[in-house]
Amino acid sequence: MGVAAIDLLYWRNVKQSGAVFSSVLLLLFSLTQFSVVSVGAYLALAALSATISFRIYKSVLQAVQKTDEGHPFKAYLEMEIALSQDQISKYADKILLCSNTCMKELRRLFLVQDLIDSLKFAVLMWLLTYVGALFNGLTLLILAVVSMFTLPVVYEKHQAQIDQYVGLIRTQVNSVMGKIQAKIPGAKRKEE
């Protein structure tokens, strides 16, 4: 995650973080009421309305003041936006690496290379069936965005207390997992 994204999530610039947070949240709430196609079309129409209005305003202003400033978006029109072959190759390599890692991990889990890891995955999938029954994907995405903009700040302000409780929970989970592993035959983990 880049420095700019981290600054947004930690609200280093409140106006910028607020603008991004409210824009993303407004977009997601719009998607709960309208289809993706409608929201995309309305956003495109809003952007076109703004740029066309600004272009007409500048043209009228130039005619009235008899100036020769030129096209108001000239700098943006001349800007290079094409992706280079190196950039495409770099992103394709990252996607390929991520896909291969994901497929290997899923194969390992589904073919029960490690019984404990496969059981953990099964419990996670079982829990996700309940989450899926309660929330749709868009609601989960809204919750994720709200969490991304609130949890880092809360953690930063209360780091000592949170770390203490997380340590206690981790100790309890490890204790329970050790007891479960001891009772399941063939589930002993290799010493790492």
Automatic annotation (TrEMBL):
Protein's membrane topology: Multi-pass membrane protein
GO cellular component: endoplasmic reticulum membrane; neuron projection; postsynaptic density
TM helices/strands, residue ranges: 20-48, 134-155
Alphabetical list of InterPro entries matching this protein: Reticulon (IPR003388), RTN1-4 (IPR046964)
The organism's place on the tree of life at top rank: Eukaryota
Compartment(s): Endoplasmic reticulum membrane
Predominant cellular place of this UniProt entry's protein: endoplasmic reticulum
Keywords on record: Endoplasmic reticulum, Membrane, Transmembrane, Transmembrane helix
One GO BP annotation of this record: endoplasmic reticulum tubular network formation
Domain Reticulon: 5-192
One Pfam family from the record: Reticulon
Gene3D superfamilies: 1.20.5.2480
PROSITE patterns per UniProt: RETICULON (PS50845)
Protein name listed in UniProt: Reticulon
Annotated source species: Nothobranchius furzeri
